[in-house]
């Protein structure tokens, strides 16, 4: 069965990079605005149950083709857990460090100015 | 593979009466330390006023890269919250409560690098100022006790410091910092510290620091990142110091003295003890200071703090096995609150509860610490 | 709990060491002498001339007492009986190693050097390069008459380009099955980009890299100043060397760039689970600093890192530690190593006894022979 939670009005968001966290039916869900789109994740870190979505957003560092130089991609699409620094992609919920690790995500749907988290 | 469930295993941390963080932290600022200085440290105070960067001028600490993780903990403009701001005792208490810990044994944060301070006078001043700050802070909290710090640069003044503060209710032990301790902890120059600690019935805690070690015997040179340095620094310092303490016979000279090793996890301990006993048996004439294998002294008087437990989510039973190899009676749960590689109580509890009796679990989660540090 | 948890069903167990088809030793050692090495250097070599002026005292050639046998006289069998039979100034050639291996019930072996385990700490880079080549030529001549032994060619990390040339030079020899990059005193540590030529050559010649530790380390990272006795150094030096090197290799991304198997020798295996948990933890918490990897360090470790069993702890005393460690690491990554002729307590039955109830017959056969045969392509 599909579950659908109203999280916030679009005008509660302060542009890209902003977020709203709301508690619905005993669970906390965060919605992030990123490049004009909305992404919804559980505010729960699979590592030690920290409040993941209260952390900072970050870009990511990777290596260049010859494997040596560090390259910073400044697209801030990773949420960094404030407890121990694990990172997750807000679009997919997956850890960029190991794809097997993921936090629960929801589809974020906007209807009549309200953002819903749907699963 | 049989799991061998114990009859009386616990099912939830809520069933535990006492959870103790045997390695909590509080950060005194330099202002805190200086405002608690007694007379006689004018040279240090003058240096501190005049130096453009006193912290780095007197201190040899330098991490290869910034400690990113700590940076991420800070409160940010974008409204994201950090774990703590100042890491004073107030924040420690808040984090402790948040993760479900009842009591804590407090250690320093900034002053973890005291061994890196070159000048003996300065180290002695910091010791006194920090300790008096700590005693006054601890007064405010019923559920916190602390380790007074000693300055390894001056073992005699350190012994006097132990005598001065040992009767304070909130002082539960002596912190002899493990990283950059030169010579290592078994050297007879530290005997005054051990003598005073034993006479006052206080255990020695040894906490390590994560990076930037320049002095012998382990060095940071060539570590290209904080991560690279941090992986090895904590366990190496403990391994070198525990080896030195044992093979140089400190437990023979001070049989009632207990040692607590903090901040390197526990997985290295079986390896270390195995090699120590091997060395004892294979080179007996080289270890005249001991009359029994090192493992015997270890099980009588050494305690190991569990944090950081490491990433065992993929093979949780391995952590239980390592706990058994070390011995639950010699383990102290540590959260490391409020530092950013802290462990919640569940991180240990969930991995061990099914494999050990309720008593053993209760012991490692808190009762061992209550006993070692004589916490009320 | 552990005793029970580790047991495998009796039907799956191997009976005893006699039931093994083959025993292959991943870590035998020949003992080369400076005299023998000089014979394999050209008369026109300046390095030969200067080394000969040391009166061939190994402690003047290598940076110090970094080679194990110097300390053998201090070692007992746990019962006060000395174990030192060999003086470091005597050659122990391949024929003698083969003979001792046969006595110990070992069928085949991969040999490593003794003095040249201290090669990383030779101050003069020219000497190091010359000593490596001379050792390899000496080794090849030794192995010619020993069908049951093969060897690792040693390389001088001081000059990675020359190391690469040396690998290319000897790689086609049937008796050379791998490279020995002496682990102790390796500076910079092995994740540094200066070693790229060396790794390129090992990879293109499809040779694994063995890294064996020794004691008496003088270089940065870990130093043995302040160790009051040999045992103090012995207890932690091997593990420190390996953990420092592994951190560098992994966090600087070597296994991401190269398809090379690594064989880690000399420190035993007891540090491996702890260190694996610690590396993974750092990777996940400090990911910013480790962009060179795309999966957990543990994944690379299980894909391409192998650990030799020596030295085993003494006395065994019913200690389940070894069995637990093998189980945690995974028996497919553990290689039996005897440390012969320097080790005396790491015989095949020592390993088999401690694992007999806790791994299956198939896993035991892998530890005692098949893993080594696979890694070295024997
Ligand atoms: S709880 Fe999120 S990183 Fe640990």
From TrEMBL, chain A:
Which GO molecular function, any one, fits this protein according to its record? dioxygenase activity
Query: What protein name applies here?
Result: Ferredoxin subunit of nitrite reductase or a ring-hydroxylating dioxygenase
> Which key words are in the record?
2Fe-2S, Dioxygenase, Iron, Iron-sulfur, Metal-binding, Oxidoreductase
Among InterPro entries, the record links this protein to:
Rieske_2Fe-2S, Rieske_2Fe-2S_sf
A Pfam family for this UniProt protein? Answer: Rieske
Query: Is NAD set as a keyword in this record?
Result: no
Q: Which residues form the Rieske domain?
A: 4-117
From TrEMBL, chain B:
Amidohydrolase-related domain spans which residues? 101-375
Transmembrane residue ranges: none
Segments forming a coiled coil: none
Kindly indicate whether the keyword DNA damage belongs to this entry: no
Q: Which GO terms describe its biological process?
A: secondary metabolic process
Q: Which GO terms describe its molecular function?
A: carboxy-lyase activity; hydrolase activity
Q: Which InterPro entries match?
A: ACMSD, Amidohydro-rel, Metal_Hydrolase
What keywords appear on the UniProt entry?
A: Lyase
Pfam families recorded: Amidohydro_2
Question: Which domain of life does this protein belong to?
Answer: Archaea
Task: List the record's Gene Ontology CC terms alphabetically.
Answer: cytoplasm
Q: Output this protein's name.
A: Amidohydrolase-related domain-containing protein
TrEMBL record, chain C:
InterPro entries listed in its UniProt record? ACMSD, Amidohydro-rel, Metal_Hydrolase
Alphabetical UniProt keywords: Lyase
Asked whether the UniProt record includes Lyase among its keywords, one would answer: yes
Residue span(s) of domain Amidohydrolase-related: 113-378
> What's an example Gene Ontology biological process for this entry?
secondary metabolic process
Q: Which SUPFAM superfamilies match?
A: Metallo-dependent hydrolases
Gene Ontology cellular-component terms for this entry are: cytoplasm
Q: Can you name one GO molecular function term for this protein?
A: hydrolase activity
Name the chain's protein: Amidohydrolase-related domain-containing protein
């Amino acid at each position: 069965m599909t579950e659908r939670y109203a999280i916030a009005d679009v005008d509660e968001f302060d542009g890209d990079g902003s977020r709203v966290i709301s508690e619905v039916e005993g669970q906390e869900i965060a919605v992030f605005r990123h490049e004009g789109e909305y992404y919804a994740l559980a505010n729960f870190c699979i590592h030690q149950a920290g409040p993941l979505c209260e952390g900072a957003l970050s870009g990511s560092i990777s290596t260049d083709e010859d494997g040596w130089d560090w390259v910073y991609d400044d697209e801030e699409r990773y949420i960094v857990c404030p407890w121990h620094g694990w990172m997750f992609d807000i679009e997919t919920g997956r850890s960029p460090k190991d794809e097997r690790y993921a936090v629960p995500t929801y589809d974020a749907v906007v209807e009549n100015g309200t953002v819903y988290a749907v699963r | 593979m049989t799991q061998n469930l114990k009859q009386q295993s616990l099912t939830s941390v809520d069933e535990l009466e006492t959870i103790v963080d045997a390695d909590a932290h509080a950060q005194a600022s330099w202002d805190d330390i200086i405002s608690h200085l007694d007379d006689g440290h004018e040279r240090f105070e003058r240096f501190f006023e005049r130096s453009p960067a006193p912290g780095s001028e007197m201190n040899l600490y330098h991490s290869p890269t910034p400690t990113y993780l700590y940076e991420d903990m800070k409160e940010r403009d974008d409204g994201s919250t950090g774990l703590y701001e100042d890491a004073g005792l107030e924040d420690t208490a808040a984090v402790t409560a948040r993760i479900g810990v009842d009591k804590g044994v407090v250690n320093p944060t900034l002053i973890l690098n005291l061994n890196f301070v070159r000048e003996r006078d300065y180290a002695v001043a910091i010791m006194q100022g920090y300790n008096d700050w700590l005693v006054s802070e601890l007064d405010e909290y019923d559920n916190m006790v602390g380790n007074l710090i000693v300055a390894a640069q001056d073992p005699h003044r350190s012994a006097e410091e132990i005598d001065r503060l040992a009767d304070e209710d909130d002082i539960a032990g002596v912190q002899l910092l493990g990283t950059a301790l030169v010579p290592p902890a078994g050297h007879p120059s530290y005997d005054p510290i051990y003598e005073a600690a034993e006479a006052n019935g206080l255990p020695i805690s040894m906490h390590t620091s994560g990076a930037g070690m320049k002095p012998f015997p382990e060095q940071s040179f060539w570590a290209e990142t904080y991560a690279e340095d941090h992986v090895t620094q904590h366990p190496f310092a403990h391994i070198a110091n525990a080896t030195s303490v044992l093979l140089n016979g400190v437990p023979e000279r001070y049989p009632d003295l207990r040692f607590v090793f903090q901040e390197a996890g526990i997985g290295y301990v079986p390896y270390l003890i195995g090699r120590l006993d091997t060395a004892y048996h294979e080179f007996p004439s080289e270890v005249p200071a001991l009359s029994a294998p090192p493992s015997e002294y270890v099980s009588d008087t050494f305690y190991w703090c569990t944090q950081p437990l490491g990433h065992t989510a993929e093979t949780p039973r391995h952590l239980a096995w390592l706990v058994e190899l070390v011995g639950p009676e010699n383990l102290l749960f540590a959260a490391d609150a409020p530092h950013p590689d802290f462990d919640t109580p569940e991180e240990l509890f969930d991995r061990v509860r099914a494999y050990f009796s309720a008593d053993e679990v209760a012991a490692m989660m808190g009762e061992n610490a209550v006993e070692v540090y004589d916490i009320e | 709990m552990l005793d029970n948890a580790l047991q495998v069903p009796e039907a799956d167990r191997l009976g005893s060491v006699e039931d093994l088809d083959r025993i292959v030793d991943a870590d035998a050692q020949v003992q080369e002498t400076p005299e023998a090495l000089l014979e394999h250097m050209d008369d026109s070599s300046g390095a030969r001339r200067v080394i000969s002026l040391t009166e061939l005292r190994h402690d003047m050639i290598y940076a110090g007492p970094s080679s194990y046998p110097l300390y053998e006289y201090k070692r007992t069998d746990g019962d006060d009986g000395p174990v030192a039979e060999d003086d470091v100034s005597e050659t122990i050639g391949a024929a003698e190693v083969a003979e001792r291996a046969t006595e110990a019930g070992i069928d085949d072996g991969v040999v490593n050097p003794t003095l040249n385990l201290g090669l990383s700490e030779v101050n003069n880079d020219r000497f190091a390069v010359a000593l490596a080549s001379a050792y390899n030529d000496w080794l090849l001549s030794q192995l010619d008459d020993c069908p049951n032994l093969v060897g690792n060619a040693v390389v001088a990390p001081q000059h990675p380009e020359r190391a690469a040339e040396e690998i290319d030079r000897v790689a086609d020899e049937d008796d050379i099955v791998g490279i020995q990059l002496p682990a102790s005193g390796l500076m910079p540590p092995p994740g540094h980009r200066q070693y790229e030529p060396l790794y390129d050559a090992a990879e293109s010649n499809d040779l694994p890299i063995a890294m064996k530790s020794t004691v008496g380390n003088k270089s940065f990272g870990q130093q043995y100043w302040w160790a009051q006795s040999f045992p103090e150094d012995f207890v932690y030096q091997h593990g420190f060397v390996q953990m420092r090197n592994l951190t560098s290799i992994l966090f600087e991304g070597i296994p991401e760039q190269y398809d090379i198997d690594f064989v880690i020798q000399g420190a035993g295996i007891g540090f491996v689970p702890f260190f694996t948990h610690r590396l993974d933890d750092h990777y996940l918490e400090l990911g910013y600093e480790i962009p060179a990897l795309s999966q957990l360090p543990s994944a690379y470790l299980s894909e391409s890192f192998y650990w030799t069993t020596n030295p085993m702890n003494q006395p065994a005393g019913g200690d389940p530690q070894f069995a637990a460690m093998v189980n945690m690491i995974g028996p497919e990554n553990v290689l039996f190593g005897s440390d012969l002729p320097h080790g005396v307590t790491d015989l095949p039955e020592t390993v088999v006894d401690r694992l007999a109830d806790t791994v299956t017959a198939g896993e035991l056969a892998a530890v005692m022979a098949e893993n080594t045969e696979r890694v070295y392509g024997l």
